[in-house]
Inverse folding.
């Protein structure tokens, strides 16, 4: 059950990387709201800016990244006005992140128990060791790993179990928002499916909001309440998952993604991809960045950037939709 309290509010966010070739426009003019209890999927091809956006929210961007404009608020608190000390406290207690590689998120020389207990005690100085141990057991139950593995070291666990431990640590302090950046991409398909079921079940119980980042369209559509489609650093469409059907109107890029999902027609599997390649983020195409690949492009697409427009419950950034309906920024929520 989602309610309308915003947990994450991203407003007009742009992030560039200073590179030898020029500025890489990794995230541009992004507006997105994630509500309490909501799962929002962030989808896009590799290199479209998803991780940059996720790291920007956590204020974990690397040194060569520059937030050129915009703001990020979590439960009303601007993440970029926090002092370093406040930020350290804010992470894990209000926002947590699960990365693609569980192995790199875990400390190889600490037992599972010690890692969970350390995280708890580091952020809750008043907590007793005993309460931390009890919470560790509770968390193992929550992610459905036998408590006996509390004594194990990361290398003694399977990939799926390691990722469950990482999830347990992320939710240990009941954050309002958990960002998951391709959390199952490194796992095999069967394990991936069970972890997704677990994420859904745990989220249902614990009630945090999730921003779930993935390049896998069908996976996210199934898990998320809403999806945000990223192309060349911009959100070209934000839509409720239930409206992700080919019969509905969509951004031409979303349409291409929908067509690329393997379709079972009798015993044939047809896959129709999107022609061409994602653009160079240093030298973006003029107008709409998708126009060189867009089957519906018209003259205006080459010269002017489209404005996000409400189309029913969706927000679409495309000239094909009437300009009079164009909305001002700040309404990334299409719900
Ligand atoms: N440290 C960096 N320096 C320069 N460019 C970078 C850096 N990190 C990422 N990029 C570029 O920013 C763009 C977005 O990357 P990323 O956010 O990782 O995309 P995604 O997560 O969607 O694959 C890509 O073009 C990538 O090459
Ligand atoms: Mg990424």
């Amino acid at each position: 059950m989602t309610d309308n309290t915003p947990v994450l509010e991203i407003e007009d966010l742009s992030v560039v990387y200073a590179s030898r070739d020029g500025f890489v426009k990794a995230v541009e003019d992004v507006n997105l709201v994630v509500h309490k209890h909501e799962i929002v999927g962030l989808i896009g091809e590799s290199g479209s800016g998803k991780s940059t956006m996720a790291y920007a929210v956590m204020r974990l961007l690397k040194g060569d990244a520059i937030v050129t404009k915009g703001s990020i608020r979590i439960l009303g608190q601007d993440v970029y006005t926090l002092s370093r000390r406040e930020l350290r406290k804010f992470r894990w207690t209000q926002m947590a992140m699960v990365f693609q590689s569980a192995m790199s998120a875990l400390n190889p020389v600490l037992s599972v128990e010690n890692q969970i207990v350390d995280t708890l005690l580091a952020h809750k100085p008043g907590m007793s060791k005993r309460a931390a141990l009890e919470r560790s057991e509770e968390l193992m139950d929550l992610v459905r790993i036998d408590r006996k593995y509390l004594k194990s070291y990361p290398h003694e666990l399977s990939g799926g179990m390691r990722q469950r431990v990482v999830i347990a640590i992320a939710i240990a302090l009941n954050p309002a928002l958990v960002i998951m950046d391709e959390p199952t991409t490194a796992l095999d398909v069967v394990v991936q499916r069970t972890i997704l079921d677990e994420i859904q079940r745990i989220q249902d119980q614990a009630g945090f909001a999730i921003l779930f980042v993935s390049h896998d369209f069908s996976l996210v559509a199934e898990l998320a309440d809403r999806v945000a489609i990223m192309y060349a650093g911009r959100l070209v469409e934000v839509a409720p998952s239930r409206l992700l059907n080919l019969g509905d109107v969509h951004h031409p890029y979303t349409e291409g993604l929908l067509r690329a999902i393997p379709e079972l027609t009798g015993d044939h599997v047809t896959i129709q991809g999107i022609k061409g390649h994602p653009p160079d983020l240093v030298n973006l195409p003029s107008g709409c960045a998708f126009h060189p690949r867009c089957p519906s492009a018209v003259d205006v697409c080459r010269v002017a950037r489209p404005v996000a427009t409400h189309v029913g419950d969706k927000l679409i950034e495309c000239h094909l939709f009437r300009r009079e309906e164009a909305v001002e920024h700040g309404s990334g929520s299409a719900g």
Remarks:
- Residues 189-206 form the longest helix (18 residues).
- The CA atoms of residues 193 and 220 lie 11 Å apart.
